[in-house]
Design a protein that fits this description.
The protein is α/β, with parallel strands linked by helices. The protein is built from eleven helices and twelve strands. IGPS catalyzes the conversion of PRFAR and glutamine to IGP, AICAR and glutamate. The HisF subunit catalyzes the cyclization activity that produces IGP and AICAR from PRFAR using the ammonia provided by the HisH subunit.
């Protein structure tokens, strides 16, 4: 049985880690390099580093920060934000990232997923999908959740899998920052639809929420930000509780 993964997410804006509710009202959560180092030492399985304003502001992900973070961690590390070409990914992987996460650029040009998978291997390609449930339908949103589309979450996830994505990072905008739990029904449907790993994101507020994401949502990994950044849940405690609930996890 494959072990489940716990992944702290560092959302970066103007060089600082930030966290908000439903993608807005951001507050400072600390220095990303220091946080990354701490999480690696505290037992995180992977890290995700997202320059959340890169696409919105037309910037490329901050390479110098990637270099610094990679220097301080010995666990797999995904980088996203403003990635739109094979060249962007080449630079990031050479700077120390293990994987890249693409979102808006994949929707705008789906061929990018195929190009990256062919060039670097599917294991390097994470497609992040920010979706919001509107009138019962999960619709994909772009540019940090600011631009709605008419793309259906499940159709889009299936398409990127077929194009070579190695993993899906699904963030429920309805749940994001609310600490009311993950979108387990949508996660379970994604799990049934796809054959690649799914990372649950948006809504973590308690240890039970993580348990539910694995047992009910059938997620392969669970990602969270504020509960880790502000010390509300300790990673080791969380992992011990998951194991006590019969979930395969690395301690």
């Amino acid at each position: 049985m494959l072990t489940k993964r716990i992944i702290p997410c560092l959302d970066i804006k103007n060089g600082r880690t930030v966290k908000g509710v439903n993608f807005v009202d951001l507050r400072d959560a600390g220095d990303p390099v220091e946080l990354a180092k701490q999480y690696a030492e505290l037992g995180a399985d992977e890290l995700v580093f997202l320059d959340i304003s890169a696409t919105l502001e037309g910037r490329k992900t901050m390479i110098d920060m990637v270099l610094k973070v990679a220097e301080h961690v010995n666990i797999p590390f995904t980088v996203g934000g403003g990635i739109s070409s094979v060249e962007d990914v080449d630079v990031l992987l050479k700077s120390g990232a293990d994987k890249v996460s693409i979102n808006s650029s994949a929707v705008k040009r789906p061929e990018l997923v195929t190009e990256l998978a062919n060039k670097f291997g599917s294991q390097c390609v994470v497609v992040a999908i920010d979706a919001k449930q509107i009138n019962g339908e999960w619709l994909v949103h772009l540019a940090g959740g600011t631009v709605p589309t008419d793309l259906n979450l499940f159709d889009w996830a299936k398409e990127v899998e077929e194009r070579g994505a190695g993993e899906i990072l699904f963030t429920s905008m309805n749940n994001d920052g609310t600490k009311a739990g993950f979108a387990n029904e949508a996660l379970a449907k994604l799990s049934e639809t796809l054959n690649i790993p799914i990372i649950a994101s948006g809504g973590a507020g308690s240890v039970q929420h993580f348990v539910d994401s694995f047992k009910i949502g059938k997620a392969d990994a669970a990602l969270a930000a504020s509960v880790f950044h502000f010390g509300e849940i300790e990673i080791l405690d969380l992992k011990q509780e998951l194991r006590a609930n019969g979930i395969a996890i690395r301690l």
